């Protein structure tokens, strides 16, 4: 399921519907006369000539064959160009961003708390926004050279394919259909969210197994609904499942007491709890139902752009791993503790040329945006209103699964 609660087949349906309208437009452009009218005209012509040959057996003339060949060739060419809209040449995106002088990123509608939200002054914040600023800083040396474009969930893929945004960082998972049907490329995962369960504290549940016979709210038709069915079978209990399609109605049903428990993607669940009237009246149960990783998505065919996204994420993690922060980075650069740190911070050459960036790009990112821990804590962690723990999104050395690449 996507962070918007839609299933992969729903994205595929939207894509096929889009292709259907594209083909219909092409058909009307190339063949503007209705087929039925053309057949009627031919029959009338044949009737006037006193004969009605079988059109299926009629041998095509050379002129008809040439026209058909040209129309088919033009149609195929247009379709090829249309399909290529989902692709980008290697290095083209970096070149476009440098020429434009700013990076274009999505921003939802400003209400995706902790990931892409706006404050009272209309300033964007959240972990998705911070990652965009990190990439913009790696390329242009300045986190302010980023333009956030509000996009709905449905606008994500057409906007990326058409070039309205340069990269999609919007709490989106890497899926088979997005790779093979939508021609997307993925970065490494920057957030690993687990499917969790929230419960009313007064019920004194220690795990979901204690809620046997009770009720549980879930988003209808989502992967969480399927995960819940499997998990209930796994722990051997039965519950009354209350499936609701709209997020606001789903949360309303739980917080009003209609459901004993509420299953959802962990970050969304934590933010919903924090934003409720009485967060302390609800507890997150220890059950880990499933895992859904979030990735950055790019157009197919631009490997250099994927490298830049992955190495920017890796730089954030490497800095955290080596204890390099926005506060101590100048001291670390002046006296690098290792050869790798010296190269990472641009004290010695070789960090940027292979990516088409300057050698001090990683220094600029950490100095002006911070390492991964700094970004997480002010977006979702203890410095934010949501007070979320890192869990699996922690570094490998802290019990999580995130890790940087090796600087050599």
Question: Which helices and strands appear, and what pairs or packs with what?
Answer:
Layout lengths: L7 H23 L4 H14 L13 H22 L8 H9 L2 E4 L4 E2 L3 E3 L5 E2 L1 H14 L5 E4 L6 H7 L5 E6 L2 H5 L3 E17 L14 E5 L3 H13 L4 E5 L2 H9 L5 E5 H9 L7 E3 L5 E10 L3 H19 L7 H6 L4 H6 L16 H8 L3 H8 L29
Parallel strand pairs: 1-5, 8-9, 8-10
Antiparallel strand pairs: 2-3, 3-4, 6-12, 7-10, 7-11, 7-12
Account of the 3D structure:
The chain is of the alpha/beta class. 42% of the residues lie in helices and 16% in strands. The chain is built from 15 helices and twelve strands. The strands form three sheets. Strands 6, 7, 8, 9, 10, 11 and 12 form a seven-stranded mixed sheet that branches. Strands 2-3-4 form a three-stranded antiparallel sheet, with helices on one face. Helix 8 (223-235) links the parallel strand 8 and strand 9 (240-244). The longest helix has 23 residues, at 8-30.
What is the gist of this entry?
This protein is α/β, with parallel strands linked by helices and 408 residues long. Helices cover 42% and strands 16% of the residues.
């Amino acid at each position: 399921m996507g962070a918007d609660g839609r299933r992969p087949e729903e994205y595929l349906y939207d894509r096929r519907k889009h292709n259907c309208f594209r083909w219909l437009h092409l058909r009307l452009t190339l063949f503007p006369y209705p087929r039925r009218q053309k057949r009627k005209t031919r029959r009338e012509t044949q009737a006037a000539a006193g004969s009605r040959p079988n059109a299926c057996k009629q041998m095509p003339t050379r002129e008809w064959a040439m026209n058909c060949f040209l129309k088919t060739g033009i149609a195929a060419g247009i379709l090829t160009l249309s399909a290529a809209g989902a692709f980008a040449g290697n290095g083209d995106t970096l070149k476009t961003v440098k020429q434009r002088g700013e990076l274009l990123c999505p921003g939802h509608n400003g209400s995706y708390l902790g990931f892409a939200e706006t404050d009272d002054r209309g300033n964007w914040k959240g972990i998705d926004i911070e990652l965009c600023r990190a990439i913009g800083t790696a390329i242009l040396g300045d986190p302010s050279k980023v333009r956030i474009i509000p996009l709905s969930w449905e606008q994500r893929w057409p906007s990326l394919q058409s070039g309205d945004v340069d990269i999609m960082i919007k709490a989106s998972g890497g899926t088979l259909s997005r790779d093979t049907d939508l021609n997307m490329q993925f970065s490494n995962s920057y957030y690993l969210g687990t499917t969790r369960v929230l419960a009313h504290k007064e019920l004194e549940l220690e795990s979901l197994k204690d809620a046997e016979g009770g009720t549980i709210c879930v988003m209808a038709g989502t992967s969480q609904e399927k995960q819940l069915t499997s998990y209930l079978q796994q722990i051997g209990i039965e519950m009354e499942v209350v499936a609701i399609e709209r997020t606001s109605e789903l949360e309303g049903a739980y917080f009003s007491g209609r459901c004993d428990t509420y299953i959802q993607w962990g970050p969304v669940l934590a933010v919903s709890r924090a934003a409720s009237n009485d967060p302390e009246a609800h507890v997150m149960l220890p059950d880990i139902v499933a895992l859904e990783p979030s990735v950055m998505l790019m157009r197919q065919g631009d490997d250099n752009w994927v490298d830049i996204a992955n190495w920017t994420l890796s730089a954030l993690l490497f800095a955290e791993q080596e204890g390099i922060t926005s506060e101590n980075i100048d001291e670390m650069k002046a006296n690098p503790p290792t050869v790798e740190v010296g190269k990472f911070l641009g004290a010695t050459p070789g960090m940027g040329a292979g990516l088409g960036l300057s050698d001090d790009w990683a220094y600029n990112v950490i100095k002006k945006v911070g390492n991964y821990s700094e970004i997480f804590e002010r977006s979702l962690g203890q410095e934010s209103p949501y007070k979320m723990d890192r869990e699996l999104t922690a570094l490998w050395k802290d019990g999580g699964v995130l890790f940087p690449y090796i600087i050599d």
